[in-house]
């Protein structure tokens, strides 16, 4: 139910509860909250058992589309593109273009290495009557770099 709640969040909630409720009322509030959650869980379990009992074998027919919806719910944009546009071929994401036997994903032992960025040095300041700012100088292949503009 609270699968995304970690120990850090629980500790923060306890500290906030201690500050707001005080040390004398905090244990009672925790007991009330756990009892309410336990009762809600029991009600949901009984309701699903009652529906399963009333529908009988038709419940499985109802559960199948719900299972498909859960699959769609967990689909990421990358998985959707891979499944529907690339017919399951995820080589565009993994880089394994020619080798179908290669594992689909980066090797866990070797982290990916980014290529080194070229070093950019600031160029000379253009005179007032010179070319527009950022335009390459005549004879220069790269535009000037202004370190104050970044």
TrEMBL record:
Family membership: Belongs to the TatB family.
Record GO cellular component, one term: TAT protein transport complex
Entry's Gene Ontology BP terms: protein transport by the Tat complex
InterPro entries: TatA/B/E (IPR003369), TatB (IPR018448)
Role noted for this protein: Part of the twin-arginine translocation (Tat) system that transports large folded proteins containing a characteristic twin-arginine motif in their signal peptide across membranes. Together with TatC, TatB is part of a receptor directly interacting with Tat signal peptides. TatB may form an oligomeric binding site that transiently accommodates folded Tat precursor proteins before their translocation.
Keywords attached to this entry: Cell membrane, Membrane, Protein transport, Translocation, Transmembrane, Transmembrane helix, Transport
Organismal lineage: Bacteria, Bacillati, Actinomycetota, Actinomycetes, Mycobacteriales
Composition bias type Pro residues, residue spans: 103-115
Principal subcellular localisation of the protein: membrane
Listed name of the protein: Sec-independent protein translocase protein TatB
Origin species: Mycolicibacterium insubricum
Region (Disordered): 92-150
SUBUNIT field: The Tat system comprises two distinct complexes: a TatABC complex, containing multiple copies of TatA, TatB and TatC subunits, and a separate TatA complex, containing only TatA subunits. Substrates initially bind to the TatABC complex, which probably triggers association of the separate TatA complex to form the active translocon.
Keyword ATP-binding found: no
Residues that span the membrane, as ranges: 6-23
Keyword Zinc: no
Subcellular location: Cell membrane; Membrane
């Amino acid at each position: 139910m609270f699968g995304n709640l970690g120990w850090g969040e629980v500790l923060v909630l306890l500290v906030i509860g201690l500050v707001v409720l005080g040390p004398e009322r905090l244990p009672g509030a925790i007991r009330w909250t756990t009892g309410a959650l336990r009762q809600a869980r029991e009600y949901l379990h009984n309701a699903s058992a009652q529906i399963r009992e009333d529908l009988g074998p038709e419940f499985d027919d109802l559960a199948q589309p719900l299972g498909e919806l859960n699959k769609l719910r967990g689909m990421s944009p990358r998985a959707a593109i891979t499944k529907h546009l690339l017919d399951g071929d995820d080589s565009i994401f993994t880089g394994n273009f020619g080798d179908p036997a290669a594992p689909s994903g980066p090797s866990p032992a070797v982290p990916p290495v980014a290529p080194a960025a070229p070093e950019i040095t600031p160029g000379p300041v253009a005179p007032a009557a010179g070319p527009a700012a950022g335009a390459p100088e005549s004879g220069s292949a790269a535009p000037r770099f202004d370190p104050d503009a970044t």
